[in-house]
Automatic annotation (TrEMBL):
One GO MF term: ubiquitin-protein transferase activity
Keywords per UniProt: Coiled coil, Cytoplasm, Cytoskeleton, Ligase, Metal-binding, Microtubule, Repeat, Transferase, Ubl conjugation pathway, Zinc, Zinc-finger
Coiled-coil region list: 258-285
Domain COS: 336-393
Name under which the protein is recorded: TRI36 ligase
Organism from which the protein derives: Origma solitaria
Lineage: Eukaryota, Metazoa, Chordata, Craniata, Vertebrata
B30.2/SPRY domain boundaries: 477-704
GO cellular component, one term: acrosomal vesicle
Annotated Pfam families: ANCHR-like_BBOX (PF22586), COS (PF18568), zf-B_box (PF00643), zf-RING_UBOX (PF13445)
Length: 710
C-alpha cells in the first residue's frame, strides 16, 4: 500500500497551491478548487474591463494567476471577444494545470462535475495528518463534545447523545446512513449538472465524462459514442489497475531514473556555475576594454586642456605687457628716456618690431586656443545598440524570415514570419519596427514580444514607410536579427463597405457571395443572347455594381483583388447624382471604337467618351492595367499598359477633388486624376464576360494570431 503522506503532491490545487477544497473536474481532466475556478473566472471577466491588467489579480490573495495565463487572457481580449454578448457563447477558462484555454461550454462552471473521489482522498489525507485533532459535534451546546459519527444524509457530525436526539427510533431519520467522524459529505447519487433532476447513468467516450440519458437524447452528446456506467467503471478500473501494477513492477527502473535525474541536477548546477564564470569573464573583458578606452579618452582631454591653458596663459601675459608702466610698454617707456642717438637706435629697432606686432594683435584680437571640446565627444550610439542586443547566440536557433506575401498593410499591419527549418523553433519572438524618417539621425526601434509567428500592429501612421525585423528566443538564447523588410502603410484611412445588392444590381449577370464581399460575372448564355440581338458592331453593355456606403468628405482608401482570368473590369468612383445615369448609360459600351484605351483614331473619340461618362473609371482585364488616354499620358498605347497587380487600391481625396489608383501591395500610385466630388461619392465597379472582384478583408486582432495558437 502506498503511504497516504506520500501522495501530497497529487492533492495540491494548481491555482492556490493548497489542498483541494471541493475540486471540480475540467474538460481537460485537470482538477481545480471550486473557489479557485470562480476567482479565476472573475479575474478573467475583469481583464476585459481593465484591458487585461494585472491589477485585477490583486483583489484575491488566495489566487495566483501566472504571467502566461494573463498573456492568454490578453490575447483573447485582443481577439475581439466580448463578455456582454447577448448570443449564447462558450466560456473560456485558462486552466492553471495545462496552461491552455479550456472551453467550459455555455453553462460554464455550472456544467462541471465535482470530483468526490479526490475529495474523499483529500479528507483521508487530512485525517492522517491531523489524527490528534478531533471533529466536534455540530449540535452540542457550548462547549461542544467530540463527535462519534457523521450522517451522510444530514451532512453533519454528532456525538452519541445528539445523534439519538436527532435520529430517534421509529422515524425516517433512523434509517439514515452514518459513518465515522468526517467533514467530507458526498451525495449518494451523482446528478447531471446540465439536467439537475437526472442521475448520470452513462459515460461519454468522446468527452470523457459521465452523462445522463437526456444528454444523449437531445443534448450536447447526442452524436457521441457512449457506454453504460457499469461498463465504463469496469473498463477504466481494469486499465488503471493494470497500469498501476506495471508501474509497481518497474519500481527498480523508476529508482534508476531518479538516481540519473539526481546526477543531472548536480551536473546542471555545475554547468550553470561554469557558464556564469564564462559570462563573467566575457563581461570583465568588456569592462577592461571600456576602462582602457575611458582612461585614454580622459588622458587626451587632460593633455589638450593643459596645452590650451598654457597658450591662453602666455597670451594673457603678453597682453598684460601692453599696459602702461608694465611689461613691454614699460620697457619702451624707459627706452624713450635714452638721449644718446646711437644707443637709442641700437635698442629701439628691435623694440619697434615687437611694438608693431603687439599693435597688430590688438587690432585683430583672437584667442590663442579654443575653449570648447567638441572634438572630444565620444559617439557611443552604435556601441549602445550593440550592447543592447547582447545576448546568448545559438547556431542551432533558426533565423526567422519575414514573409512579405503573407504580411499585409491595410487598416492594421499584419506582420508574418517563418523559420526555414522546423527544428529547434523559438519559444518567443521579438518584433521590432521603426518609421523611416530622413530627418531623424538616430533610429529608435519599437519592440513587442509575440508568442506565435505573426503580429497585428495598430499604432502605425498612414502614408508612411516602416522597417521591420524579428528574432527568436529560446530561454536566454536568441537568434540573430532577420533581414529588415520595408513596408508602406495606405495613403489614407481604410474605408469599409460591401457590394450593394439593391441599387441597380443585375442578379441575372452578376453573382454576389452571401457576405457581399465578392462579385462575379459569368460569360454564359445570357451574354450570347444579348449579343445576338445586335446586328451592327460588337456593342455589349457593362454590368455595374456600387458600394453600399458613400463618402461625403475627407480622404479614404480601399483595396480589392481582381481575378487573373477576368476579361474586362472597370473600377473607380461615381457621385450620387449620377448613379441613375450610370445604370442607364447608352454610351457605356465596349468596342474598338468606344474603348478609351484602344488607341484608335486621333483621340476625338476619347474626348467624347470621357465627357459622356458619369463616373471616373480605369480599365483592367487580361492581367493588364490600362492607364486612360489623357493629354498627360504617354502617346504610345503600349506604354500605357501595365501588369495587373495582385491587389489594387483606390484613394479618394474629396477635399482636393482627386482620385488615385494604387498597387496596394507596394502602396505605389499607378494613376491619378481629378474628380468631381460635389455629391456623395460611391465605389463603382463594372464587369463584362468572365470576371470577378473580391474586396480586401480588414485585418483584425485575431487575423492570424489565434490560428497560430490553434
Amino acid at each position: 500500500k502506498v503511504a497516504i503522506k506520500g501522495i501530497e503532491r497529487e492533492l495540491i490545487c494548481p491555482a492556490c497551491k493548497e489542498l483541494f477544497t471541493h475540486p471540480l473536474i475540467l474538460p481537460c481532466q485537470h482538477n481545480v478548487c471550486h473557489k479557485c475556478v470562480k476567482e479565476i473566472l472573475f479575474a478573467f471577466e475583469d481583464s476585459f474591463a481593465d484591458g487585461g491588467s494585472e491589477s485585477s489579480n490583486q483583489s484575491s490573495p488566495r489566487i495566483r494567476i501566472s504571467a502566461s495565463s494573463m498573456d492568454r487572457i490578453d490575447r483573447i481580449n485582443r481577439s475581439g471577444m466580448k463578455r456582454n454578448s447577448l448570443t449564447p457563447r462558450s466560456t473560456l477558462f485558462p486552466c492553471p494545470g495545462c496552461q491552455r484555454d479550456i472551453d467550459l461550454g455555455e453553462r460554464g462552471i455550472n456544467g462541471l462535475f465535482r470530483n468526490f473521489t479526490l475529495e474523499t482522498i483529500v479528507e483521508r489525507y487530512r485525517q492522517a495528518a491531523r489524527a490528534a485533532i478531533a471533529i466536534m459535534c455540530d449540535f452540542c451546546k457550548p462547549p461542544p463534545q467530540e463527535s462519534t459519527k457523521s450522517c451522510m444524509d444530514c451532512s453533519a457530525s454528532y456525538c452519541n447523545e445528539c445523534f439519538k436526539v436527532h435520529h430517534p427510533w421509529g422515524t425516517v431519520k433512523a434509517q439514515h446512513e452514518y459513518v465515522g467522524p468526517t467533514t467530507n459529505f458526498r451525495p449518494k447519487i451523482l446528478m447531471c449538472p446540465e439536467h439537475e433532476m437526472e442521475r448520470v447513468n452513462m459515460y461519454c467516450e468522446i468527452c470523457r465524462r459521465p452523462v445522463c440519458h437526456l444528454c444523449k437524447l437531445g443534448g450536447g452528446h447526442a452524436n457521441h459514442r457512449v457506454t453504460t456506467m457499469s461498463t465504463a467503471y469496469k473498463t477504466l478500473k481494469e486499465k488503471l489497475s493494470k497500469d498501476i501494477e506495471y508501474l509497481i513492477s518497474k519500481e527498480s527502473q523508476v529508482k534508476a531514473h531518479i538516481t540519473q535525474l539526481d546526477l543531472l541536477l548536480k551536473e546542471t548546477e555545475c554547468n550553470s556555475e561554469r557558464a556564469k564564470q564564462e559570462a563573467s569573464q566575457s563581461f570583465e573583458k568588456l569592462y577592461h576594454v571600456l576602462e582602457e578606452k575611458k582612461s585614454a579618452a580622459l588622458r587626451a582631454i587632460e593633455t589638450s586642456k593643459n596645452i590650451r591653458l598654457e597658450k591662453l596663459q602666455t597670451q594673457v601675459e603678453e597682453y598684460q605687457g601692453l599696459l602702461e608702466n608694465n611689461g613691454l610698454v614699460g620697457y619702451a617707456q624707459e627706452v624713450l628716456k635714452e638721449t644718446d642717438p646711437s644707443c637709442f637706435v641700437q635698442t629701439a629697432k628691435q623694440l619697434h618690431v615687437r611694438i608693431q606686432k603687439a599693435t597688430e594683435s590688438l587690432k585683430s584680437f583672437r584667442p590663442a586656443a579654443e575653449t570648447t571640446f567638441e572634438d572630444f565627444v565620444v559617439d557611443t550610439a552604435k556601441q549602445e545598440d550593440i550592447l543592447g542586443n547582447l545576448s546568448f547566440h545559438s547556431n542551432g536557433l533558426e533565423i526567422p524570415e519575414i514573409n512579405e506575401e503573407q504580411s499585409k498593410m491595410y487598416n492594421k499591419a499584419l506582420i508574418s514570419w517563418e523559420c526555414p527549418g522546423k527544428t529547434d523553433s523559438a519559444d518567443i519572438y521579438v518584433l521590432e519596427y521603426h518609421k523611416l524618417n530622413r530627418e531623424e539621425e538616430s533610429v529608435t526601434w519599437q519592440k513587442t514580444e509575440v508568442c506565435g509567428k505573426s503580429k497585428v500592429l495598430s499604432d502605425l501612421d498612414e502614408d508612411s514607410s516602416y522597417a521591420f525585423r524579428v528574432r527568436g528566443y529560446k530561454g536566454s538564447i536568441c537568434s540573430p536579427w532577420s533581414q529588415e523588410v520595408i513596408l508602406r502603410t495606405p495613403p489614407a484611412p481604410v474605408f469599409s463597405f460591401l457590394f450593394d445588392d439593391k441599387c441597380g444590381y443585375n442578379n441575372e449577370h452578376l453573382q454576389l457571395n452571401p457576405r457581399r464581399t465578392s462579385v462575379e460575372s459569368q460569360a454564359g448564355f445570357p451574354l450570347l443572347l444579348g449579343s445576338e440581338r445586335l446586328q451592327v458592331g460588337c456593342y455589349t453593355t457593362l454590368d455595374y455594381i456600387i458600394g453600399d456606403t458613400g463618402i461625403a468628405k475627407g480622404k479614404h482608401f480601399w483595396a480589392f483583388h481582381v481575378e487573373a482570368y477576368s476579361y474586362l473590369v472597370k473600377v473607380g468612383v461615381v457621385p450620387s447624382n449620377k448613379i441613375q445615369k450610370l445604370f442607364h448609360n447608352t454610351h457605356d459600351v465596349t468596342s474598338p471604337r468606344y474603348e478609351q484605351d484602344s488607341g484608335h483614331d486621333s483621340g476625338s473619340e476619347d474626348a467624347f467618351f470621357d465627357s459622356s461618362q458619369p463616373c471616373t473609371l480605369v480599365t483592367l482585364g487580361m492581367k493588364k492595367f490600362f492607364i486612360p488616354a489623357t493629354p498627360a499620358a504617354p502617346k504610345d498605347p503600349a506604354s500605357r499598359v501595365l501588369p495587373l497587380p495582385s491587389c489594387l487600391g483606390i484613394c479618394l481625396d474629396c477635399d482636393r477633388g482627386r482620385v488615385g489608383f494604387y498597387d496596394a501591395g507596394r502602396m505605389k500610385c499607378l494613376y491619378e486624376c481629378e474628380v468631381d466630388c460635389s455629391g456623395i461619392m460611391y465605389p463603382a465597379f463594372a464587369l463584362m464576360g468572365g470576371a470577378a472582384v473580391h474586396l480586401e478583408e480588414a485585418v483584425t486582432a485575431k487575423y492570424r494570431e489565434y490560428h497560430d495558437d490553434i
